[in-house]
Design a protein that fits this description.
579 residues, alpha/beta, 24 helices, 46% helix, 11% strand
Length: 579
């Protein structure tokens, strides 16, 4: 009776009014809960604007004081050439720093890649040790690297206004080697995306085509270096975050073995996850610059500041060796169908390597879907995503994350049910949903053991063929903005080597041709699911964009990986865009 009366009341005009009140109240509550996030956005953008104005003023002031400096000639120098001119006194550190400050400011106007100008770089010049391997070299930093007095927000409002108390270890080592960190660069919100956008600083764009993503999560670095606003930068990689921007922006990047470089002072949004290793690595225009950076970082200062890093100096004899290599390769991982440009890049590189005398051997790591869907995804989100979601309380969610937040918020039982129902139609999504369920400590230990077993099995495969290195396709060309979050399966070529913890680097080898573009019409993918549909649609309109290959070595063999990358670079000479 009471229920009947209540229903009658709610069915009339008063009920409609009451419903409107409920909706209005819900919207007001939602608005109120996000007031702190809106404030964080305003403060972050005001600070970004102020630091960019400081950059422009510093560069203009220097130009007025030094009208005869040939900035165009300076910007055309490679990193090794610049190091030489700084050491012999042909150029001063001031010449180099302020020329790059001005160039970075110009690049940012078209890409929105710089979040902060590290203004104390101007005082750092006088303190830079002249004997350092990177004396006087301006270095850009992904925003996650702690820098004293500066925020590392990761695009999250909870981190805005929380300046670092000290520099991260790698930043300290860079300074001891004479380098001058000068900007922080943009990242996707939380860094769990291979796009580059967040509510605090907005969307970073690809310098080649503004409707394309620069990749992520080291996307600000990729855009800045790719457009000539920096010669050398540091990024991080837990699923391809150095390699995607390097591929999409036409530069070189190295993901080392997880613990080769120190991670102390690198900010993240999930701590304690060790199943899939994060790596710190360099990004630059060429392989020699990557090698120079690794040479500088792998020094006694880093081993002293972080004793947990193995004291392995850079092995010069391995990097400089000219011995012929036995190279494994695969044209596809049978998970993400390579685009026509990817396939052509791989095959042309293979042919050039063979012509140079190297031996190429077909090789495909076993059970790649299991490694990606069960081991890697399960390792990254073993708590069901609860730690990750803590970062988003009261915050806006950037579109670059796609449906990740919505999926992680689903209760464990619903993830399992959806996985069961979707398995016949969408097997990849079903497998990932299943792996995103929280697990017990015992099952986490079992998963970590399974990762070890899988890694050892791939190493045994590798050893059985007596391989030195491995050549693989690298995802490319760059995708449309906001597409990566809806094409999660395409991380397969990179995520595998985070799961294995193998060093892997990216080298641009060609650009998309009209023929490649025409053949894109036939790309449907191996599964024809929504990830495949989004991927191949987002890679169209790409003529002229860079395409790369991936070079891989066994754990702790970064020097061999770089040596292989250098060999590929010397054999393949893609057209460089003169920004």
């Amino acid at each position: 009776m009471v229920l009947d009366e209540l229903w009658a009341a709610l069915s009339g005009a008063s009920g409609a009014a009451l419903a409107c009140c409920f909706v209005a109240a819900a919207m007001a509550l939602r608005w109120s809960s996000r007031r702190p996030a809106r404030g964080a956005v305003d403060r972050a953008q005001q600070r970004q604007k102020a630091t960019l104005e400081s950059m422009d003023k510093a560069a203009q002031h220097f130009r007025l004081q030094n009208p005869d400096l040939d900035s165009k000639a300076l910007l055309a120098l490679t990193l090794p050439q610049l190091v030489q001119k700084l050491h012999n006194g042909e150029l001063s550190p001031q010449d180099v720093l302020f020329t790059y400050v001005g160039k970075a400011w110009e690049v940012n106007k078209g890409t929105n890649c710089v979040t902060t100008y590290l203004a104390d770089c101007e005082t750092q010049l006088s303190q830079a040790p002249r004997q350092g391997l990177l004396y006087g070299i301006p270095v850009s930093l992904k925003e996650c690297f702690s820098y004293k007095g500066q925020d590392s927000t990761l695009g999250l409002s909870v981190n805005q206004g929380v300046p670092a108390e000290c520099d991260s270890v790698v930043v300290q080592v860079l300074k001891l080697q004479g380098a001058v960190p000068f900007v922080h660069t943009n990242v996707p919100q939380s860094m769990f995306s291979y796009d580059c956008s967040n509510p605090l600083f907005g969307q970073t764009k690809n310098p080649w085509k503004s409707f394309k993503t620069p990749g992520g999560s080291s996307g600000g670095e990729g855009a800045l270096i790719g457009a000539g606003g920096s010669l050398l930068g540091l990024g991080t990689d837990i699923g391809g975050s150095i390699r995607f921007p390097s591929s999409f922006c036409g530069i070189c990047g190295l993901k080392p073995t997880g613990n080769r470089l120190s991670k102390i002072g690198v900010k993240g949004c999930i701590y304690g996850q060790v199943a899939v290793q994060l790596s710190v690595g360099p990004m630059a225009h060429d392989v020699e610059s990557l090698a120079l950076c690794m040479r500088a970082l792998l020094c006694e200062d880093m081993f002293r500041l972080d004793p947990t890093v193995p004291p392995l100096p850079f092995k010069e004899e391995v990097y400089k060796s000219s011995q012929l290599l036995r190279v494994g390769y695969y044209e596809t991982d049978n998970y993400t169908m390579p685009t026509p440009a990817m396939k052509r890049a791989l095959l042309e590189t293979k042919q050039r390597l063979e012509a140079a005398g190297h031996t190429l051997v077909p090789f495909l790591p076993s059970n790649i879907p299991y490694a990606l869907e069960t081991l890697a995804m399960g390792g990254l989100f073993s708590d069901g995503g609860s730690s990750f979601l803590q970062n988003f309380k009261g915050d806006f969610v950037d579109p670059c994350l796609g449906d990740l937040i919505l999926i992680l918020k689903l209760p464990r039982w619903l993830k399992g049910l959806l996985a069961l129902l979707l398995k016949p139609l969408l097997p990849r999504l079903a497998a990932c949903l299943s792996s995103l369920r929280s697990r017990s400590i015992g099952k986490l230990w079992m998963l970590q053991h399974e990762i070890e077993v899988y890694r050892n099995s791939v190493i045994a495969q590798w050893r059985a063929l007596d391989l030195d290195v491995l050549l693989t396709p690298m995802l490319g060309p760059a995708m449309d903005l906001n597409a990566p979050g809806k094409a999660s399966g395409a991380v397969s070529y990179t995520l595998l080597y985070n799961c294995l913890d193998f060093p892997a680097g990216v080298v641009p080898v060609t650009t998309v041709t009209l023929e490649d573009e025409a053949q894109m019409e036939d790309c449907r993918g191996y599964f024809g699911d929504m990830w495949d549909k989004v991927l191949y649609k987002a890679m169209r309109k790409s003529v002229g964009l860079p395409v790369a290959v991936q070079c891989v070595a066994l754990p702790w063999q970064e020097e061999l990986c770089l040596r292989f990358m250098r060999e590929v670079e010397q054999l393949m000479t893609p057209e460089k865009r003169p920004f």
